[in-house]
Design a protein that fits this description.
Elements: H1 20-31, E1 39-46, H2 54-68, E2 72-81, E3 84-85, H3 86-91, E4 97-107, E5 110-118, E6 122-130, E7 139-148, E8 151-159, H4 167-184, E9 193-197, H5 205-210, E10 224-225, H6 226-230, H7 244-247, E11 257-261, E12 272-278, E13 293-299
Parallel strand pairs: 1-2, 8-9
Antiparallel strand pairs: 1-13, 2-3, 2-5, 4-5, 6-7, 7-8, 9-11, 10-11, 12-13
Length: 300
Amino acid sequence: MLRAFGHVSFVHRNAKTLDSKSRSLHARTLCGYDKTMNRVRIVTLNIWNRLGPWEERLAVIRKGIQELSPDIVGLQEVIELPDSTQAKMIADGLGYETAYGMATSYGGGVTMGNAVLSRWPVVSERVFRLPNGGTDEHRSILFTEIDSPFGKLPFFVTHLNWKLHESVVREEQVQEVAAVVKAHAPVEGLPPILVGDLNAQPEASEIRFLKGLQSLGQKSTYFADCFEQAGYGPGVTFDGTRNLFAEQYHEHPRRIDYILVRGPDTKARGKPLTSRVVFDIPDNGVFASDHFGVMAEISI
């Protein structure tokens, strides 16, 4: 959204006939994935630009990232100032490279957009404008290519129009998002990861399009919704009944922040392994943002 300035046990009747190695493999198979496979840990968070008590929120965000220890973080509503960005403030001293992509300019060298924090080198970055459907909002998608230990990983961050009645605009935007991912993430490479504040619930047409459940404009695509496939519970990420920063907007609780991945491929790369809501507990009464975040582990 944009305003102005979580134990599973397995029992099998033949388990006692299996040796320990076989039981371990059997449990992994039942769980739906092999725990020995390579994985990447992703976090996404809309940081609510500089609204509210920013310095206190900054400390909460930095503490959360240290505790979660993600490999890559996607951020939305990031302010860029003439001498720095909020992404750099968050990453300072934590061992992450940063990349930033502008969505809108306020003049005087102040802009707002999307950002990436990466443990591994960011070898390229590009920003693509998204259609705004004639509205006064300006949106973009940031594409970064990350030199991970597993190969070049395409990572995308975006933020769609926020107004509840602007589904038709978001439909245009997700079609462009899908086109950008398709153009810059070849099928033979590592599966692209797309994260962001999409400002739409899972049943919305724009999200159904991204999940391959319906077409838009004679086009179709497919991404796995990590929380839907590997999370538990409703996964609400914007909740004014729990988060005082969101309470002021008087909107109903819903899941609008996502980690999506194109996969799995024939090598089982791009399979959601785990996912949960994060940044949903206040630290000394202070939430990280008006949004909660999402974390996921993905096979790679």
